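Supplementary Methods S3. Complex input for the iron/sulfur cluster-bound model.
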Amino acid sequence: MFAEFEQYAQKGLEMGFTHVAPLKADTIICRHEVRGDCAVNKCHAYNKSWACPPACGTIEECQQRIREYENGLILQTTGELEDNFDYESMMATSANHAKHFEAFSDYIKEICPSALLIGTGGCLRCKQCTYPDAPCRFPNKLTHSMEAYGMVVSEVCQANNIQYYYGKNTITYVACVLVN
Ligand code: SF4
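Predicted complex, serialized as structure tokens:
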């Protein structure tokens, strides 16, 4: 565990994340097969943001970027559902997670400007991304998505000894930050 982990983790929990764990950057594998989901545009974000493919670079470039770091944090927001079809609670948990991550991103960038922000489902910083007509408004706050980096979320959690599934009628959103 790196020296500042407890300080960062405490802040993350105060900001609303339900679980925070240390992340070893060398456990992250960027997989072409995950990026394949981007190319078929399952999330409708492909080619719509500076933070997503193709603008975020090739899988090899993403892996290379990750290799510049040693440590990081996995940040999770778990919510409870009434049942598997409780779409409202899923959306509410997702919105909470996005808020937690934006607050944490602002915090960590103050302390560690080189931190790499890899969130859930692309960059939500601006209502409308400037892509592709103008440069990114906040390149220092730009947030990639774990999927865009080819990361299998459950695999990254498992490799870093943090649960991903917290039981029946729960949903968990995951983000991570790399620091050096
Ligand atoms: S910070 Fe704004 S302009 Fe930059 S990638 Fe995110 S949404 Fe787009």
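The chain has a mean pLDDT of 94. DSSP finds five helices and five strands in the chain.
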